[in-house]
Design brief:
- It is built from 12 helices and 18 strands.
- It is an alpha/beta fold and 364 residues long.
- The chain folds into 2 domains: 2-127, translation initiation factor eif-2b, domain 1 (Four Helix Bundle (Hemerythrin (Met), subunit A), Up-down Bundle); 138-362, 3-Layer(aba) Sandwich (Rossmann fold).
- 48% of the residues are buried.
- Helices cover 40% and strands 19% of the residues.
- It has helices spanning 38-46, 53-70, 74-85, 93-108, 113-148, 175-183, 200-212, 224-229, 255-264, 285-288, 297-300, 350-356, and strands at 2-3, 6-7, 11-14, 17-21, 32-35, 155-159, 188-193, 216-219, 235-238, 242-244, 249-252, 269-272, 278-279, 301-305, 311-315, 328-331, 338-341, 344-346.
- Bound molecules: 5-S-methyl-1-O-phosphono-5-thio-D-ribulose.
- 5-S-methyl-1-O-phosphono-5-thio-D-ribulose binds at residues 51-54, 91, 161-163, 167, 173, 200, 239-241, 251-252, 327.
- The active site is at 241 (proton donor).
């Protein structure tokens, strides 16, 4: 997607290293960083220099190319793979990408591991970008349908966190239909949840939408229900970090509350995801999906920019108050209107999901 008019992906190979956009610096500065070792890749994922399910998977894919270069035995390769998998627990794309790399290396033999891992890493990234583009085409029809029922009026879409191109390799999942609708000339406006504690909505989604010229408004996290009660939200689209075979959705903390409000107000609630985000081994998301808990300081502090342009962190809690930081929650399938995947749109039911994805039948 465009940054100041120049097309970018979120990750690419640069000489013998992996180049990323450091998302901890956005929106105040656009900086790229080169990762040279598996340890640097693991730290970039853990500290959220890269984040978002699809991009975490693509980064782990490239990390395995570095692992193939660092490892001199299959055992060392497995240890390095494990060091990537344990960085963040909820987004299943991470372990999916690492296991895909391990299987590919096993198939062609350890001797060919470096060239093979490079090809697989590029394939994972290219497929992620292609899947998001297809999600955009399928999701566009949902927005077009809503637009046709309110001719001449703006379609208001609410999104949570950042499931934009910054969370993938390109296009994004939740944002792909939004960008497609904007490109098709459908008048749209996006309500962007700020998404405490790390403010991925306010910092990343709003920045992305502004770069692409999409009209949007940032709202405090608890605003969505009020807007829905007053007819100001036509559609909710979020991304996902892991979706079970029966359609339960793990996504950024607060997604569940938006789904409850949407259901109560008759607002369609769609989740957009590539098939690498399905966990075919799980049915019950509330019981089965591991929910990451991050450091309390992310809740206790906020980062911002001063009038003079320097980025500063301030504490917003009194010293005596502890904080808890649950990074994700699970929205049960019954609250999801539909899933927008690269293979089409389907209801969030096991039957519909598995009929779009025949590979699911052998996984459980
Ligand atoms: O903690 P993050 O920023 O990695 O979480 C991102 C989200 O929850 C996104 O909404 C999600 O990854 C879905 S889109 C890839």
């Amino acid at each position: 997607m465009l940054v100041s008019g120049t097309p970018y992906r979120t990750i690419w190979l640069h000489e013998e290293s992996v180049r990323i956009i450091d998302q901890r610096r956005l929106p105040w500065s656009f900086e790229v960083v080169d990762l040279h070792t598996v340890a640097e890749v693991a730290e970039a994922i853990r500290d959220m220099a890269v984040r978002g399910a699809g991009l975490i998977g693509a980064t782990a894919g490239y990390g395995m190319w570095l692992a193939a270069r660092e490892a001199s035995t299959p055992e060392e390769l497995r240890t390095l793979a494990e060091s990537l998998i344990c960085t963040r627990p909820t987004a299943v794309n991470l372990s999916w990408a690492v296991h895909r790399q391990l299987e590919a290396i096993q198939e062609t033999g350890f001797g060919d591991r470096v060239a093979n891992a490079r090809l697989t890493a590029e394939a994972i990234a290219d497929e992620d970008a292609a899947a998001c583009a297809a999600i955009g085409r399928h999701g566009l029809e949902i927005i077009r349908d809503i637009a046709s029922r309110k001719p001449g009026q703006v379609v208001n879409i609410l999104t949570h966190c950042n499931a934009g191109w910054l969370a993938f390799v390109d296009h994004g999942s939740a944002t792909a239909p939004i960008y497609a609708a904007h490109a098709a000339g459908i008048p749209i406006h996006v309500w962007v949840d700020e998404t405490r504690p790390r403010n991925q909505g306010a910092r990343l989604t709003a920045w992305e939408l502004a770069q692409q010229g999409v009209p949007h408004t940032v709202i405090a996290d608890n605003t969505g229900g009020h807007l829905m009660q007053h007819g100001q939200v036509d559609l909710v689209i979020t991304g996902a970090d892991r979706v079970t075979r029966s359609g339960d959705v793990a996504n950024k903390i607060g997604t569940y509350l938006k789904a409850l409000a949407a259901t109560d107000n008759g607002v369609p609630f769609y989740v957009a995801l590539p098939s690498s985000t399905f966990d075919w081994t799980l049915r019950n998301g509330v019981k089965g999906i591991p929910i990451e808990q991050r450091g309390a300081e992310e809740v206790a502090q906020m980062e911002g920019v001063t009038a003079s342009g320097s980025v500063e962190t301030v504490r917003i809690l009194s010293p005596g108050s502890p904080a808890a930081n649950y990074a994700f929650d699970v929205t049960p399938a019954r609250l999801v209107t539909g899933l927008i995947t690269e293979r089409g749109v389907c209801p969030a039911t096991e039957e519909a999901i598995c009929s779009l994805h025949p590979q699911a039948s052998s996984a459980i």
